[in-house]
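Subject line: Sequence and fold of a protein, written as C-alpha cells
Area: Proteins and the way their chains fold up in space.
Start of record: The labelled sequence and C-alpha cell lines come straight after this line.
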Amino acid sequence: MSYSLFDFLQLIGSLGIFIFGMKIFSEGLQKIAGSRLKGILGGMTQNRISGVVTGFATTAITQSSTTTTVMAVSFVNAGLLTFVQSTGVIMGANIGTTITAWMVAIFGFKTQITPIALAVIGIFFAFLFSGNSRLRNIAETMVGFGILFIGLEFIKGSVPDINTNPEIFAFLDSYTDYGFLSLILFVIVGAILTLLTQSSSAATAITLVMLFEGWIPFPIAAAMILGENIGTTVTANIAALVGNVHAKRAARFHFFFNIIGVIWMLLLIYPFLHMMDVAIQYFFSTDVSVMGTSAEARTNGTLALSLFHTSFNILNVLLLFAFVPMLVRFVEYIQPDRGGEDEEFHLRYISAGPMTSPGFSVEQAHKEAQQMGDIIEKMHHSVQELLFDPKADRAKLVEKIHKYEETTDQIEVEISDYLVRISEHTNLEHSLTERIRFMQTMINDMERIADIYYQIAKLTERFDESSSSWPEVASSEMAEMLEAVGKAIVIMQENLAANSGNANLDKALVAEQHVDATRDQYRDTHYARLEAGEYAARAGVIFIDMLNRLERIGDHILNVNESAAGRRLKAVRTDGDD
C-alpha cells in the first residue's frame, strides 16, 4: 500500500480548504443578500407552502441548510415564528441544500473548473480591500467560490488511487456485499461523516468524490446521501438544547421528518435508483449505466447522485406535506410544554448562539434588548404598587424588584458578550458596527434604569423603618411623577419595537422634558413643605431622593430612545446615579 500518513494529512487539509471556501462563499452570499434576505424571511409567517418556498430560497442564497434551519429554530425561540410555521421552512431547506451537490457535480467533475477558479480569485482578490462594502462582499463571495473548487480539486488529487491501493478498495468492498444491510451501514456512515465535518455540503462533496474515484458504487453513495440528510439535523438540535420548548420542537420535527423520509426511501431505493439511471441515460443520450465502473459511468454517476438527492427531498416534502399536522402533534407529545421553566426570564432570542449572518445576529440581540425593556416596565409597575397599594406584600415586592434587577444585570452581560462576538466578524459594514455600538450603550442605560428602580425600592424600606409618612399632596405629586416616567417608558417601548432608525425622538424628547419639568415643580413644593414643617426631615429626604432618581430614570430612557434611533440629541448624563 503506497498511501502514507502524509498523504492522509494532505486529504484532511484539502477538505479543510473546501470547507473554508464554502464558509467564505456562504457568508459572502448572505452579505450581498442583506435586507433582501430579511424580506424573503418575511414569507415564513404566511403558511406552510410559502414556508417551503422561503426555506428553499434562503438555503439557495446562503448555500447552507444548517444556517436556514438554525435560523428557523432561533426565530421560533424568539417568538418570531410559531413551531408550525417553522415546519415549512425546514422542509424547504432540505430541498435548497441539494443545489450544492449540483454545483459540485457540474463544475467539479464535468468541467475543468480549477483554472477558472484561480482566474476568478486573481480578478477579485484585490477588491477584498475595497472601501465599497458591496464590492467587497461580491469579491469575498467570488474568492470563496474559487477556494471551494480548488479545495475540491485537491480532495480529488489527495484521495488514494484505487489502482495503486487495492487494499482500500478491498476493505470497502468487504462492506458493500451485504445487500440491503450494506445500505443501512452506509446510511450510518453518511450521518457520522456529516457530524464529523459539521457540514452536509462537505459530506456530500466527499461522497461525490468517493463515487467519482470508484471507491464506492452508486447505490452505496445514495445510501450515504440519505445518512447525510439525517446528520444535518443534528446542528439544529444542538442549537435548540438551550432554547425554549418551541425551539426544541422545531429541531425535533426536522429530525423526525428526515428520518421518516430515509425510511420510506430505503424501502423503495432499488427501483428509485434504476429510475435515476434511466433519467441520466435519457438526458445525456448515453448507453452507459451509472451502475458501471467505467470513467464515464462514474462521471455520470455524480450527476445521478445529485438528481437522487434533489428528487428524494422534493418527493419527501410532497409525500409528507399532508401529514405535517400529525407529525407536529407527535413532536408536541414527546416534547411537552412544562410551563414554569419556560416562563422564567432568560435569553430567549440569542440562546442558540450567533448566526452566520451578522445582520440577523444583531436583530436577535435587539429583540433581547426589547425583553430588557419589558422587565423595566414591570419594575416600574412594581414600584408603583410598592408605594401606593396598602394591601401589597411589601417585602415580596422588594424581593421581586431585586430579582428583576439581577436579571437585567445578567442580560446586559450576555447581550454585550454576544455583540462582541458579532463584532469579531471581519469586514462588518459601518452601519452595522454603529448599530452594535448604540446597542451596547442602550443595554447599559437600561441596566442603570433597573438599578435605580431597585434603589427606590430600598428607599421604601427605609421609609417604613422610620415610620414616616407623607402628606396627601406629596403622595399625589409622587404618583404624578411616576405617571410621567411611565409614559416615557411606553414611548421607549414603542421605539424599541420600531425598525432600526425609525424611532420617534420628538415624542421621546417631549416625554423627557415633561419628566424634568415635573421634577422641578415638585422639588420646589417639597422645599416649601419642608420649611413649613409639614413632614419630618427624614420623610422629606426620602421624597426628594426618589424624585431625583425618577428624573435620572427619565434621562436614561431618553438615552435608550436615542440609541434606538441611532443618533444623539444631547450628551448622555450619568452623574449622580450611584
Observations:
- The radius of gyration is 31 Å.
- Residues 358-565 form a domain with the Methane Monooxygenase Hydroxylase; Chain G, domain 1 fold (CATH 1.20.58.220).
- The longest helix spans residues 430-465.
